[in-house]
Amino acid sequence: MNEIVSSISSRVGRPFDVPLQRELKHIVRYHAAMQTHRYLDKYPWERNLFLQEVIIPVEKANPSECPDIKVPGKCFLLKTTKPVPRPIRNITMIYDYVGAVSGRDPYAYLDPAFADFIQYNRYTKDRPKWFYINDKIYLINEGSDKFTLVRGVFEDPFSINACGDPKCFTDDDPYPIASDLLPLIVESILKVEMNRLFPEEENVDADKDVTPEK
Fold it and tell me: How far is residue 148 from each of residues 17, 27, 80, 86, 213, measured CA to CA in Å?
């Protein structure tokens, strides 16, 4: 991250502008998510290349938090103790996997709009299920899980840090994104954001090589 923002701030003639570099970190995250979304819309079969996973603690939830969800008698209502990294929007799924930490026991996604029908399906009513509300994942499960594994394409790859995951990133690490998307991200920032931030200044030549030096 630091390498990218340093490269951009140098190209606009502000190599030591710390407030600009601080703002650029937020801008890089936004443009990275936008370019990833566009890429996966075009090449959905490459989704696996962008997947991250995080193990998050869960705790018992008060049923009053989800008054429309009917929890079967034998089951617990659990929730993640911390917000889950937000997913990049997809018309077919929210997350690629939510389930046991082994990564081999996925739970069934439950659309809250159809929660009332859980109790009437005698074959799946006791199967672990999950749903996503207010940046947290809720589980309906007979077990007493302590953790759940979440796998998906996250808007901000650095957001796994807030979940207490040991695979943390720092701003000194390379930004975790496909290397061929990085020039597109930097070019987009130079063409769009720099004009917004410094409209009185001459625009940067965004056609030159904008890949941060290794």
Answer: 42, 31, 8, 16, 39
Rg, C-alpha atoms of the chain: 21
- What average pLDDT does range 59-66 have in this prediction? 80
How much of the chain is helix, strand and coil, in % rounded to 5?
35, 20, 45
Say if CB 161 and CB 173 are below 8 A apart: no
**126 touches 74 (CB < 8 A):** yes
Tokens (6 digits) for 84? 């889950």
The residues spanned by each domain of the chain are 2-47+174-197, 52-152
Cβ neighbours of residue 211 closer than 8 Å, sequence gap 6 or more:
182, 183, 186
Measured CA to CA, the distance from residue 122 to residue 126 in angstroms comes to: 8
Q: What is the mean pLDDT of residues 79-101?
A: 88
Quickly tell me which residue has 């819309």 as its tokens.
41
Which tens digits make up the pLDDT trace of 45-57?
999 989 999 999 9
Lowest mean pLDDT among 74-78, 103-107, 114-118, 138-142: 114-118
Stated as kind and residue range, the H or E segment containing 160 is none
Higher pLDDT: 192 or 25? It is 25
Q: Are strands 136-141 and 129-133 parallel, antiparallel or unpaired?
A: antiparallel
For residue 152, the model assigns a pLDDT of 94
